[in-house]
Amino acid sequence: MIDLHGRVAVIFGLANQRSIAWGIAQQLHAAGATLAISYQNERMRAEAEGLIQELPGAEAFQCDVSSDEEIDRVFAQLKERFGQLHILVHAVAFAPADALRNDFLLTSREAFRVAHDVSVYSLIALSRAAAPLMTEGGSIITLSYYGAEKVAPHYNVMGVAKASLEATVRYLAADLGKQNVRVNAISAGPIKTLAARGIGGLSEMLRIHAERAPLHRNTDQLEVGATAAFLASDLASGITGETIYVDSGFNIMA
Ligand code: 0WE
């Protein structure tokens, strides 16, 4: 069993019970980590706080990662409350719905900007804010998707943003290695989350995924959470800058 007792983790991206952030929170909690969990805004507050209360000792924070001021404020709160930090989880992505419906060719400058700001730049900003608190070394974990590598229908500008995110993981890993902070991505198979719900044809995607994947099933949030717990732990002390697939093996198939 992975042991994260005495480690403080902050998780960004909790929306509801289906969130990958929630699967990760449950597994880090089971491993004994002290949790701070952040949700985006007032609208998400009631649902997020209800869930966070289910994990004894976990504390709720509000932060919209597209705001530098809100990031500064939440890390000041984390410093005050915990003093130091060991684990940062970034489970945040957004692109305007239009950009995921129309041809990629039609991607607007604004949709490109928003997708990269929310889904990629936020990892840089959060890592910079977290690094000074990671005085005993640390582990930064983000979420990617196969559409970063291969063209996934309708994933469009998100695929380009995830490619940028995976490159960002490597550049951050190179910078932060000197303070023993590791940075990795988990590339999860498709999962029915709030972010995926809006998309047409998700059920068919899940079916095809389960059919073609070596394990002949879909991936769930707790499996992603288990890999996050591993990456957060000393068992992964030699792994940084990597993208690890947790997708029932789908990505290896021709
Ligand atoms: O990364 C994701 C979710 C990305 C996402 C989804 C939405 C839908 C609603 C980002 N922004 C938005 N904005 C919205 O307005 N996934 C890996 C899940 C996902 O999203 C897809 C997928 C899959 C899989 C979008 C199109 C095609 C496949």
Give a written overview of the molecule.
A 7-stranded parallel sheet has the order 3-2-1-4-5-6-7, sandwiched between helices. The protein is built from 9 helices and 7 strands; from the N terminus they run βαβαβαβααβαβαααβ. It has a single domain (8-245), classed as NAD(P)-binding Rossmann-like Domain (Rossmann fold, 3-Layer(aba) Sandwich). It has 254 residues and is an alpha/beta fold. Helix 6 (156-176) links the parallel strand 5 and strand 6. The protein has helices at 20-30, 42-52, 68-82, 97-101, 109-130, 156-176, 194-197, 202-212, 221-232, and strands at residues 8-12, 34-39, 59-62, 87-90, 138-144, 181-188, 243-246. Helix 3 runs parallel beside helix 5 (109-130) and helix 5 (109-130) packs parallel to helix 6. The two termini are 34 Å apart. Bound molecules: ligand 0WE. Ligand 0WE is lined by residues 93-95, 97, 100, 145, 152, 154-155, 158, 190, 195-196, 198-199. Residues 93-95, 97, 100, 145, 152, 154-155, 158, 190, 195-196, 198-199 line the site of ligand 0WE.
